[in-house]
Amino acid sequence: MPHRRLAALMTASTLAAACAADVPEPTGPPLIPLPASVRMTEGTFSLDPGARIGLRSAGAAPVAEELARLLRRSTGYPLPVVRQEAEITLEESGGRDLGREGYTLDVTSDQVRLAAATPEGLFRGVQTLRQLLPAKVESATPQQGPWTIAGLTIEDRPRFAYRGVMLDVARHFFTVEQVKRYIDLAVGYKVNHLHLHLTDDQGWRIEIKSWPRLATDGFYTQDDYREIVRYAAERFVTVVPEIDTPGHTNAALAAYAELNCDGRAREPYKGREVGFSSLCTDKEITYRFLDDVVREVAALTPGPYLHLGGDEADSTAPEDYERFVARAQRIVDTYGKQLMGWAEITSGAVAQHWDPRAGDRAVAAVARGAKLVMSPADRSYLDMKYTRDTEYGLDWAGLVEVGDSYAWDPATLVEGVREEDILGVEAPLWTETLDRPDELEYMAYPRLPGIAEIGWSAASDRSWEDYRERLAAHGPRWEAQSVAFYRSPDVAWR
Ligand code: ACM
Description:
Blueprint: H1 4-7, H2 12-21, E1 37-47, E2 53-55, H3 61-75, E3 81-82, E4 88-92, E5 103-107, E6 112-116, H4 119-132, E7 147-156, E8 162-168, H5 176-187, E9 193-197, E10 199-200, E11 203-204, H6 222-234, E12 238-245, H7 250-255, H8 284-300, E13 305-309, H9 318-334, E14 338-342, E15 350-353, H10 359-367, E16 371-374, H11 377-380, H12 402-406, H13 410-413, E17 422-429, H14 437-444, H15 447-456, H16 464-472, H17 475-480
Parallel strand pairs: 2-3, 2-4, 4-6, 8-9, 8-17, 9-12, 12-13, 13-14, 14-15, 15-16, 16-17
Antiparallel strand pairs: 1-7, 5-6, 5-7, 10-11
Helix pairs in contact: 5-6, 8-9
This protein binds acetamide.
């Protein structure tokens, strides 16, 4: 199928002829995520050595500078940023009601004009503009032109407000620079949340000044974490810190004996089993600990959410679990954040559906008033192996080829969960088997862009057949950025 919106521009006979001959249909540019509307027009824009980037309001300046930085690297052109109409113009305008992240992009033979109500909308539009240019625009060194874009008009806005990626830095630690690269690649697909799984049985990865023995080996100082938050915010990405509780806490229980019911420190743990650790829900010190951790992490985190995990607490009795979560909720309230948790959590503003066998938890979360982030393990967990032969990754939720990861819809996945219950989608990457950045990239690409598209684009516009054609065009972009992606045999890579 060609894109729906483009199909509308084709006559019935050309469409029939294209299908009958089984030749590639004329399609629009291979954009991911697919915009809400694309209309091809006359003319072709050419980015020439004398081009400038113009802005009409001060708010657009950081986004214009970021665009200039990207384009200068690969074109080698000076591309000055100027305060006037120019060959590429960024405009912050009330204009059409496309929301905080929406934008319009008009390309004619004379000009590229990007308009949005906010700098964030402009930033999302810049990602579209990047994808309209040849793949070599992603290169870190100057390349030969031409740098042309076919004329078109795009109007775009996201389906869901939350389009996240999660990185488990607890099982294996990743440095600030490695996290920045993960952010850089993801924002190209309009991802807007970075969930950091900061603590687990195997490690505690964020400095807590009032409990200094928690983080001792491979961790972010508070300044490191601030730097990640700052870098993400510059790219309109909200960091969601996760402190997993009351289970997945062996690292804390090893660092502080007094957090254990029996007062004895646990041994450090490097294995892969889950469900064996629990904070001691009967001890007051547990809540002083939680208060200190939440206070410090909340103070470092400008975003609205504080994720307290809550998953797989198999060593916490259900009544203790509920009591713990109720107190955790009050602590999170005290520090002005919204509680987020995996779907087991019994309180909080946002619950994250993950276990394909447990849709009832998502339904229960909605019934108590929570919104859902959809991250079904058998679709969106980037650590699942693609095939039996995938070198690393897990397979407890199945083998997840690129098509499996793409071909689902959040609003029809769990019976009883409707579109309006859903805040968005997330692609978690757990790192039990992954300790190098190229391994992260291999598991995330090409599945991450598909999850990002599910979060951004209308379900009625999406099909695997169309998506795999567009995806094929992203291979050369990843090559230009040295991304170690998986060349799925289900995609005709260019
Ligand atoms: C999870 O995969 N335990 C949330």
